[in-house]
Structure formats: C-alpha cells, structure tokens
Amino acid sequence: MTTRPRLLSPEEAEKKTRFLYYWLLLVLFFEYARPASYIPPLGALPLNSALPLGLTAVCFFAPGLRPVSEIFKDRMARWPLVFIGFILLSMGYAEVSMRAFTVFELVLGYVFLFWIIARIVTTEQRLRGVFLTLIFCHIFLLAMNPEVVLDPNNRNYIRGASFLGDGNDFSLSLCILMPLAMLSALQSSGMRRMFYWGVMGLLLLAIIGTQSRGATLGIASVFGYLWLQSNRKALGVVGVMLAVLVVLIYAPPVYFQRMGTITNYENESSAEGRIHAWKAGTKMALHNPLGVGAGNFPNSFPKYRSDDAPVRWMTAHSMYFLILGELGILGLLLLLKLIFGNVAENARLRKVLTERATGPPQDGVDPQTVADNLKHSVLWLRFMNASMFGFAVAGAFLSVAYYPHIFVLTGLMISTRAIMATRNGMDMAVLQAPAGKVRRRVAAGVQRRPASGA
User: Of 292, 390, 295, which is closest to residue 339 (Cα–Cα)?
Assistant: First the structure.
C-alpha cells in the first residue's frame, strides 16, 4: 500500500525551495545583464543556456513549488504555449524555415522562463526579489555604459547587452520596470524608500538619454494610467510635474527635436521608414492569412514594400506589425491576448476581491484586515497593469514580440494574481467561471455560516 507524500506547510515549502528561488534570480541576471560580456572568464561556460535549462528540468519534479494545477487555474497560463505552438506551425509554410526555427528556439527558452517564474515565485517576498533583480540588471548595464546617462546629447548603445543593446530596446525595458520601482517605493519606508525613488529618477534619466520616442510615449502612458487609477490625483499631478521638471532640466535640445518628429514623421527618415514597414506588414497578412512565417519579415519586405520604400531589407519596427506580417491576424490576436488578457484578468480579480470585501462580513475575520488586504492587493494589480501598458505602448514602435518581456510579465502576473488571491482567502478557480457565475460564487463565499444549533 502506497502513501501519498505529506503536503508541505508554506514555511517548509519556502525553506525547501529557497535555493531554486536564488537560482531563478541568477538566471534573470545572466539573461538581462549578460555579465560574460564584461567578465570574459564567465564566457568559458555556456551559463546563459545551462542555468535556465537546468532550473526548468528541476522545476518539473521539485516539491514545494506552485502546483501545475494551480498555475493553470489562471486562464492566461495556456496562452504562452499557444503562442509558441503557432510559431512552430509557421515553420511549415515559412519561405525560409530555418529563420522560423531560430525564432522558435529563442521563444522556447522564454517559455521556459515563464514556466519557472510561475512555479517558483510563490510569495510576495519573492516577487519583490525578482523586481529588485531586474532593476539591478539594468543599473549594472548603466554602470558598464555610463555614457547613456552622462552624455544625453548623443544616442549611445548598450555594449554587450544582447536584446537590450539598442537604446530603444533598453528604454522599453525601463518602461516595464518604472512602475515596479514605484510600487516598491510606495510599500517601503526610510532609506529603502529613498533608494527606490532614486532608482526611478535614474531610470527616467536613462530613458531621456536614449532619446527614444517610443519609450517616452510608453512612460507617459504608465504615468497616465496610474494617475487615472489613483485616488490621490492631486498628489499624482505633483509627481508628474516633478518628472517634467527633471526632463526640462536634464534633456538636451536634440531630445526635444526628436520628440517633435512624433507628430511630424514625414520629415524624419526613421519615423517614415516605420510607416513603410507597417504597410508592408499589413500586405503580408492580406496576401498570406497565416503570415509569411516567424522570422521572415525582413526577407519578405522587398516583395511587399511600397514603390517609394527603401530597397534594403527592413524589420517591422513594431511588435504588432511584426506579428501581423509573420503570423497573420491570428498571430496578432494571440499577442493582444497575452497583453490585454493579463490586464483584464488583473481587473477581474480586483473586481472579485472588492465584491468580497464589501459584501457581508465573514465569520472570524477582522473587517479592517479585509480592507487592508484589499487595498494592498489592488495596488499590486494596478502597478502590474501599468508595467504591461508601458510594454504595450513602447512596443508599438519596436520589434520586441520575441523578446523575453511578454513571457516574464505573464509569469509575474500569474504569480501576482495567485499570491493576492491567497492573501485574501480566495481560490483562483473562482475566476475560471463566467462573470455571472463568479458573482454568485463570491456571494456564496462571503455568506455567514449559521450559528451552531440554528
């Protein structure tokens, strides 16, 4: 007769899997900061591949992690798998199948990253640790490339940074991190709070230093969303004014000249080139319902370009038009699902938690504790949405669909929803039901139990 393994308590699970958590932080550091580019001896071993692959394998069997069944209670957990499946399918019809395979291989690694984040990040402390690690990676890159901040008159590249090497790509990543740094500041005190506000200031200077128009729009959307969602709008106006003051003091004239081309793109070659690329991506989708195949936008561009477009190969300069051209309308819908589906699930959880907190009081639960948990959880969900909006807006001007951002964000948002649901005593399975049934389940869950003898 076999006995089922004993379930670990949360404390035991945290202690038993702590080394996996630190392993995850190391994986993120090697993926984002690429330290081997600056410390050559690290390049002697294939750590960028060995670390995530080893951790992925261990996460399939290690006890104490978030159960697979709990991960898939979140309706967004399946979509990264559908997305990579669509990329794999495109190998069958791509003009250059090896290009599609290269993209598949790259994205498979990022799906593994999504998987280990969803499995390992089981506590709020671990969420904060991931945030801090990602912030540290970017500060490390700025330390290795100080001219990005110290010489804002020139557009500088991030040497040795792989997918963050271009200033535009680097600043898009900062748009994702800015809300996480702000959230950390709001939930800290003393010197730690000052540190996070200082980090926010540094990230803002770096965005200005890259002179990225897409990132400028992205960070504006982040601040705009947070201001609209805030209950302290007057204080938000003060914060925005301070940010504008920093821009006016620090930004060189060339920065404002580049920003002026956002609405006057006809007189700027880079902005006009994007329009040509977007038109070509649209034609690719119209002529090929499933697109031209992952990774095949550049070599297909000459065939679908406008007569007045450059003859040279060109990438899409937009993750939306990249996916539209390479994976067709269905591929674009998948990308939109990954972005706005996560935003919608956060809003859905926030609504359910609010209904629980404002419903009939629960037996043995302090109403103030319920209110505090709700406020705390809403703040987390709101700022995670702000990060996604920063990515969604800045990504409209960069070909970042196959970068790790959407997979890391999805893993973090699934973890955040699970953690906040547990904090409020709710099972994520409630959110799998249609909206009407959710309301009935919530109402049933907050009803008082009848007194003994009733």
Answer: 390
d(CA 247, CA 249): 6
Asked if the structure places residue 24 within a domain, the reply is yes
Distance in angstroms (rounded) separating the CA atoms of residues 10 and 39: 38
Residue with tokens 């899409």: 316
d(CA 394, CA 173): 9
- The pLDDT of residue 417 is 96
| Dmax (CA) of the chain | 84
DSSP string of 392-407, one letter each residue:
HHHGGGS--TTSSHHH
Helix (H) / strand (E) containing 52: helix 47-59
Q: Which of 65, 91, 111 is at the close of a domain? A: 65
- Residue after which a domain boundary falls, among 243, 263, 283: 263
Q: What is the pLDDT of residues 341-392, one digit of tens each?
A: 999 999 999 998 888 777 666 666 677 788 888 888 999 999 999 999 999 9
Q: Residue 448 — φ and ψ, nearest 5°?
A: -70, 140
Task: Look up residue 134 and give its two tokens.
Answer: 């990602």
pLDDT tens digit sequence for 96-120: 999 999 999 999 999 999 999 999 9
Q: Give the pLDDT of residue 441.
A: 53
Q: Which residue has 């404390």 as its token pair?
A: 11
Contact by Cβ (8 Å): 232, 271: no
When divided into structural domains, the chain yields a total of: 2
Cα atoms in the 13 Å half-sphere on the side-chain side of 437 = 6
Q: Assess contact for 394 and 218: CB atoms under 8 A.
A: yes
Q: Which pTM value belongs to this model?
A: 0.90
Q: How far apart are CA 78 and CA 227, in angstroms?
A: 32
Tell me how far the alpha carbon of residue 372 is from its chain's centroid.
26
* Mean pLDDT within 307-322: 81
Distances (CA, A) of 182 to 97, 204, 314: 43, 12, 36
pLDDT digits (tens, 9 = 90+) for 138-156: 999 999 999 999 888 888 8
Amino acid at residue number 288? N
**Segments forming the whole domain that contains residue 49:** 11-65
Residues 149 and 48 reside in one and the same domain? no
Are the C-beta atoms of 110 and 8 separated by less than 8 Å? Answer: no
